[in-house]
Amino acid sequence: MINHISIAVEDPTKTANFLAEVWDGVAFPFPPVEGGYFVLANDGKGTAVEVLPANTILVPGEGMPDETDFSIETRTEVNEGQFVKNGTTADFGPVHLNISTKLSIGEIRAIADREGWRNLVCNRDKGLFQLVEVWVDNRFMLEIMTEKQTARYREITDPNFIMTAFADILAQKPGVEVVSALA
Q1: How many CB atoms lie within 10 A of CB 20?
Q2: pLDDT in tens, 2-26
Q3: Same domain as 73, residue 103
Q4: Average per-residue pLDDT in the chain?
Q5: Please, what is the angle between helix 12-23 and helix 105-115, to 10°?
Q6: Looking at 31, 64, 89, which one is the last position of a domain?
């Protein structure tokens, strides 16, 4: 299970409010990053997105903590990853996020339209599954699935389904080993 992810956007307030609305959730200020937000979904699982200004990057901390008598009280702040401001931002990148919502396709698209963001219904892999593609700030791809779309996604991401559906493709990839913890 993925508990949370951090994304960097041009307008963190707008994006945080959008996510909170789509998730029937809430957006809180994110103290580690000025102008950032922590958006918590109303799913009872702690699912969240940290929404950060576009010029924010994450870098490793310094050194390692003393592991002698390491406990919950051991201070690790200087050793932890740090959010820092960077002078540049990329227009596009490989990271995207797929989330579920109780809203309908029309409701998702209406909210994205209101924000002025590109959005469309997509039939991924020739109709294997469907989602709404929303381009936050017209630069970050957010895939949003309705409850029905999420149910289909869960069906096709079952490892047994994948092994059967892609058996021919997997057989054509010599040297690619399917590792399973299911046995």
Answers
A1: 20
A2: 889 999 999 999 999 999 999 999 9
A3: no
A4: 90
A5: 170
A6: 89
Q: Could you tell me the sign of the dihedral formed by the alpha carbons of 161, 180, 178, 157, in that order? A: positive
Count of domains for the chain:
2
Same domain, 73 and 97: no
Predicted confidence at residue 95, as pLDDT, reads: 85
Answer yes or no: do 105 and 168 share one domain: yes
Q: What share of the chain is helix, strand, coil (3-state, %, to 5)?
A: 25, 30, 45
| 106, 140: one domain | yes
Tokens of 127: 């109709």
183, part of any domain: no
Confidence of residue 59 (pLDDT cuts 50, 70, 90): confident
Alpha-carbon distance of 4 to 47, in angstroms, equals 6
Cα torsion through 47, 72, 83, 18, rounded to 10: 20
User: Domain boundary at 59, 89, 119, which?
Assistant: 89
Name the token pair of 177.
């080993």
Enclosing domain of residue 54: 1-89
Tell me the pTM: 0.82
pLDDT tens, 84-95?
888 777 777 778
Return the closest-CA partner of residue 12 out of 132, 140, 106.
140
